[in-house]
Amino acid sequence: MRALRYLYRTPLLLWHLLIDLPLTLLLIALGRGGRLSHAMVRWWSGGLLRIFGMRVQRIGTPLPGGTLFVANHVSWVDIMVLHSQHMMGFIAKSEIRSWPVVGWVTTHAETIFLQRGNGDSLGQVMAEMAQRLRTGRAVAAFPEGGTRDGRALGAFHARIFAAAVDADAPVQPVALCYGVRCEAQPIVAFAPREHFLGNFLRLLGEPSRPVRVCFMPPILPGQCEGRRAIAQTARERVAQAMAAA
Q: Which is deepest, 83, 88, 155, 171, by most CB within 10 Å?
């Protein structure tokens, strides 16, 4: 069955890359960051997920305007899942720029790139996040700080929430669940020493499965005192959603 899935998905993927992607990038440029640009990012991301056999089911509603979205981090697919539902500028490691497919899209989708290990870069990213939130633009981050094996939810680092505190912006936790009961998290996650391309090709041959994206009740300004309390509350809500699945 894996060979059969490669047989019919590969032509669809090539079409999506060679025909749909240039058109998408053109319309993103013409849209100049407006509704057309955002719609094209959502459309292209959703199309890629369908080619991979991922059927997205949304629970809850993303807040409009300047909101910090925070989600559990499983794989590169997380960015596509969230972009298929709502336009948000991700905080992502600078290495993603060189990734095929995902790098092209994220570069044109308001991503804020972070050079890991560079203190100056982190300060610039935090300042850009706060500025975007103040001007009513959504920002997204993975507060675990990186991907894991998909078997456990890591701690949410509090520093990323400082931008929301500084901008007096709401934080909306988002739970990403692969499979009917989140049982496919380890499959979607990067295997040990697996690079992006290997994970990309492996997932292309995987069986179709549901992907649940749960937009949890937001944490409004003033509901929690300080970034550590916000981080803990956000993690609890993501964990609850995953356990309920």
A: 171
Distance CA 174, CA 215 (A): 5
pLDDT the model gives residue 117: 61
Cα separation, 216 vs 44, in Å, equals 25
**Average model confidence (pLDDT) for the chain?**
90
β-sheet bridge partners, residue 211: 56, 178
pTM for the full model?
0.91
Q: In what order do the strands lie in the sheet with 112-114?
A: 54-59, 209-215, 171-178, 68-71, 139-141, 89-93, 112-114
Quick: pLDDT tens for 17-58.
999 998 998 898 898 888 998 999 999 999 999 999 999 999
- In the chain, domain spans: 54-244
Instruction: Note the pLDDT of residue 103.
Output: 67
Cβ atoms within 10 Å of 207's Cβ, excluding its own? 10
φ, ψ (nearest 5 deg) of residue 160: -65, -20
User: E strands within 94-161?
Assistant: 112-114, 139-141
Q: Beta strand 171-178 with 209-215: parallel, antiparallel or unpaired?
A: antiparallel
DSSP 145: S
| Cα 206–Cα 108–Cα 145 angle in degrees, nearest 5 | 60
Determine the Cα–Cα distance for residues 148 and 129; give it in Å rounded to an integer.
24
Return the SS3 of 64.
coil
Q: Centre a 10 Å sphere on the Cβ of residue 5 and count the other Cβ atoms it contains.
A: 16
C-alpha dihedral (104, 65, 61, 108), degrees to nearest 10? 0
The type of residue at 208 is: S
pLDDT at 12 over 80: yes
